[in-house]
Amino acid sequence: MPKNENVFSSAIARGAAWRRRAASRLVHRSWRWLQRAGAVTAERPGTLRFGRIGEGTRLAFPLGTIFGEPWIHLGNHCVIGEQVTLAAGMMPGADLGPDPVLRLGNGVVLGRGSHVVASAPVVFGDDVFCGPYVYVTSDNHSYDDTTRPIGKQWPRTAPVEIGSGSWLGSGCVILPGARLGRNVVVAAGSVVRGEVPDFAVVAGAPARVVRRWQPDAGWQPPLRTPAPIPIPEGITPEQLLALGELEDPDPAGA
To answer: Which protein family is named in the record (predicted)?
Structure first.
């Protein structure tokens, strides 16, 4: 191939690469704009009309399925991840009465892809953190009538309560009638039913208590790792970053 044709081909390749990079930057910038514009807050609720949406609460875009929002009350400074379902009632348009059905306390975090489905009251306390793909429901299928498909039988419902300060691990399921105490840890993939006491760790399907804090003996069985050093009161994020830099040794030995 003549030399000038090599130069021409190289210029075409560079042009094509530049166009791909430019298109990629445009797509990512547009998506970030959509995420900001599509997020739901108290100031920008869009078409949703929640019974309450607190100050600082944000539902990330893209939204999941949301209906029955007049019976959904969201506390202050909640973080609702992408594709999270919040449903009050069995279907859109149902009249669920004068009281809220699904209530999130202040500072609740629902991870990406989580589902909260409430026909009977479902209540999250304050500062409940959920990993991705958590499923919390007050409804369960019935299978009593062997002559009808299970999906066409009216479900059983029971209230659910999740105590303040709890952590729900990724992919866990909280079944109707569950009552979790304060600061409960639910291991990833667990299926929880019934009552769980305060300051307990549960794991398994069905979940059982595998560790619990007792006032006279501490954690039983004992924790396998030492407790982290608590963050001093009043310390700022900037001070924490500076402290981390001081504690991180220079790999170059400077």
So the answer is: Belongs to the transferase hexapeptide repeat family.
